[in-house]
Amino acid sequence: MIPESFISDLLNRVDIVDVVGRYVQLKKTGANFQGLCPFHNEKSPSFTVSPTKQFYHCFGCSAHGTSIGFLMEYSGMGFVDAVKDLAQGVGMVVPEQDDKIPPAQRAQMQAQSMALSEAMNLAMEYYKTQLRSAPNAIAYLKGRGLTGEVAARFALGYAPDGWDNLRSVFPDYSAVALVEAGLVIDKVDEEGRHIKRYDRFRERVMFPIRNTKGQVIAFGGRIMEQGEPKYLNSPETPLFSKGSELYGLFEARQAIRDAGYVLVTEGYMDVVALAQMGFPHAVATLGTACTTIHVQKLLRQTDTVIFSFDGDKAGRRAARRALEACLPHVSDDKTIKFLFLPSEHDPDSYIREFGADGFEQQVSEAMPLSQFLLREAAGEHDLDEPEGRARAQYDAKPMLQAMAPSGLRLQIVRGLASMTQSTPGEIEALFELSKPVAVSRKAPARSKRQEPVGLERKMIRMLVTHPSLALQMDADALEACRHFGQEQYDHLLHLVQLAQSLGPNGTFAALAQQLKEQGDGYDAIIGEIAATPEPEIETERLFLAATVRELKLQQVRDEINIVMEAINTAITAKEPTDVLTTGYRELKALEDQLLREQEADKSFR
């Protein structure tokens, strides 16, 4: 858990113009910067970055957020990774409550990471240079239908024949970093003594693997002739984890947004060939099964994921593993499909034989996750027999249990019930599904919080725009806010406490980031603030004081009415009214004072 104080300090130190400017060409227009929105297609710029608010906003698609939010949306990073990336750029170290690593060891780890990154970059440049003078590798790539432009886009290279070619790149060929990066292999005897060192990759076309920040973290090498293994990947290293990375994701990010979906394949060549043929929104798993981490990364980039595996048995097994990885992340606003090609084809061979139109047709006919799950459950079982139907239910049970309650899960339950001659309620009860829908009574409608209006909305907008104003909200001011109602008061109190926790230097960006992490309840107001010029804080300060005074005046008048009723009741009952009358006079005096203050404030009459 990263402390909110650190997030606030970080957002005060980074400049969102610099952060966004790494990925979007910005042009200064008045107090702000403008550019083409990276989150939707547009020809005229509607994407605005405000250096004063430290916030971005698109008037076309309404995307908005802080520097942290931009990295999460654009690069597909998780929250922690985005914070760490920004912190590294301004020389800050992210504190983590469960981090027991001593500072000296942490510094050593950072130095090691930098050394490995530098080694990988040098190796990539070497392999790229070697490709230019390797006619056999160039002929191979041309034979696969690739142009120099696509090869350059993916930084393809070539590792020539020879045991120690990297010696020409690294003067210290014995450096530990070369082994740790997976570029070389140390051969040892049975007793663990070092015998010799040699390059891992030889006579292979090289595919650099980048992380979401564009850093080279590993390589994949493909043999050009017959031989095994066909693909050779870098080993697991401090930079590279196969279960967490996807080949081509860095290069495909913008194309994925443009297309509205991502294609997931099994091999490097599938990705490159599809890009060559007009499908630049493809990525590939790295010689391992699709994992839940892969699925999370993909769903950060787009709401629609289509898995396109080879048509053979191995491809179908990979599709089943991908299905299982997807189930915990299935939701009603996400679409996941599976494309099954003929058994003799992979995406690369299919698109070369049938062209882009033929492959596009296959994509459009991809099988929805729900249909694939039911097909997997049915398997080869005889659904005309009770035993076959029971076995189908048995096979479906772990898959449905892996899904969170949702409308889609309910639809699959209904499909399985129909297929196995059961009812949806029986399936949910038999599988012990969490929060069953079909068998539960409909809960009474919960009262939604009313959208803030009038003075309440004005106060919220002022406090979100300038969080430091919350410091002038004392106990009396907060008490006056009870006039809005208990639920509204509770929400406003929470907002004031969040804003006050940021201190006198609290910013709109820092508070907006916190509110975003807690849900989308303030998203509309944040969007409005991001889309309009920022008001002067002194003007807002005076307006807030006037608003609080208005609330206090309403509160006092409500109390006067209550006391007047009590006095009338006492007079009717012939009871003493001295105490009530004294209270009435005090309230009237307070009302007069507030009215005089209101009269004196000519700006807010």
Automatic annotation (TrEMBL):
Binds 1 zinc ion per monomer. Its cofactor is Zn(2+). Keywords: DNA replication, DNA-binding, DNA-directed RNA polymerase, Magnesium, Metal-binding, Nucleotidyltransferase, Primosome, Transcription, Transferase, Zinc, Zinc-finger. GO terms for biological process: DNA replication, synthesis of primer. Belongs to the DnaG primase family. Residues 260-342 form the Toprim domain. PANTHER family: DNA PRIMASE (PTHR30313). It catalyses: ssDNA + n NTP = ssDNA/pppN(pN)n-1 hybrid + (n-1) diphosphate. Its EC number is 2.7.7.101. It comes from the Bacteria. It is an enzyme of class 2 (transferase). One of its GO terms (molecular function) is zinc ion binding. A zinc finger (CHC2-type) spans 37-61. This is DNA primase. RNA polymerase that catalyzes the synthesis of short RNA molecules used as primers for DNA polymerase during DNA replication. Monomer. Interacts with DnaB. SUPFAM superfamilies: DNA primase core, Zinc beta-ribbon. One of its GO terms (cellular component) is cytoplasm. Contains an N-terminal zinc-binding domain, a central core domain that contains the primase activity, and a C-terminal DnaB-binding domain. The lineage of its organism: Bacteria, Pseudomonadati, Pseudomonadota, Betaproteobacteria, Burkholderiales. InterPro entries: DNA_helicase_N/primase_C, DNA_primase_core_N_sf, DNA_primase_DnaB-bd, DNA_primase_DnaG, DNA_primase_DnaG_DnaB-bd_dom, DNA_primase_Znf_CHC2, DnaG_bac, DNAG_N. It holds the Pfam family Toprim_2. Gene3D superfamilies: 3.40.1360.10, DNA primase, catalytic core, N-terminal domain (3.90.980.10), DNAb Helicase, Chain A (1.10.860.10), DnaG, RNA polymerase domain, helical bundle (1.20.50.20), Zinc finger, CHC2-type domain (3.90.580.10). It comes from Pseudoduganella plicata.
